[in-house]
Amino acid sequence: MKKIFIFCIVALFASVSFGQTVEESQVPDVVIKALKAKFINVKVTKWEKEDTIYSAEFLMNEAATEAEFNEKGIWVCTEWDVPVEYSPKAINDYISENYAGYKLKEVSITELPIDGKIYIAEICKKKTSSKLYFSLKGEFQKAITEICDKKKEKKCMMHNK
């Protein structure tokens, strides 16, 4: 059972978080131009590609930043990590009240084209991993949960709340 859980967590993060590192010369010009238009004078420290999405990592205003663009140069999102110890009290309170026994793993401020800036908190407990979405005021919006089913072994299922 422990092996299944570990595999599910690794598969989850491998499929969601990790792309293949690519050289800037492998990034389409339209993506580089879109990045430079949206984020003037930034120096990309790392490029990654997952499916048709290119991720650029760079410093902006002394903060580690990741921006994603599709292969046509259309901006998908921008993310800034927030140290867990500095996560907003409202988010910590919500997790304590509604997700007893869960551990807060990561918090980020994410900017999306339609939703604007939001907090995304990643929490986990045993074989369950969730992403909780909050407004910048700390108001809960939605949860996306992945559960690894030990009977199906290598399958993780997503549930929206």
Task: Describe, in short, the structure shown.
By secondary structure, the chain is an alpha+beta fold. It has three helices and ten strands; from the N terminus they run αβαββββαβββββ. It is elongated, with a radius of gyration of 17 Å.
Describe the structure.
This protein is an alpha+beta fold and 161 residues long. The protein has one domain: Roll (Nuclear Transport Factor 2, Chain: A), CATH 3.10.450. 22% of the residues lie in helices and 47% in strands. The protein has three helices and ten strands, in the order H-E-H-E-E-E-E-H-E-E-E-E-E. A ten-stranded antiparallel sheet has the order 1-2-3-4-5-6-7-8-9-10. Strand 9 and strand 10 (156-160) form a beta hairpin. The radius of gyration is 17 Å and the shape is elongated. Residues 1-17 and 152-159 have low confidence and may be disordered.
CATH class: Alpha Beta
Please estimate the helix content.
10-25%
The whole-angstrom Rg is: 17 Å
Write down the overall mean pLDDT. 85
The span between the termini is: 26 Å
Largest sheet: 10 strands, antiparallel
Runs in which pLDDT lies below 50 for 5 or more consecutive residues are: 1-17, 152-159
Total DSSP E strands:
10
Q: Would you tell me which CATH topology applies?
A: Nuclear Transport Factor 2, Chain: A
State the domain count: 1
Strand portion: over 45%
Number of helices: 3
How does the helix and strand content classify structurally? alpha+beta
Order of strands across the main sheet = 1-2-3-4-5-6-7-8-9-10
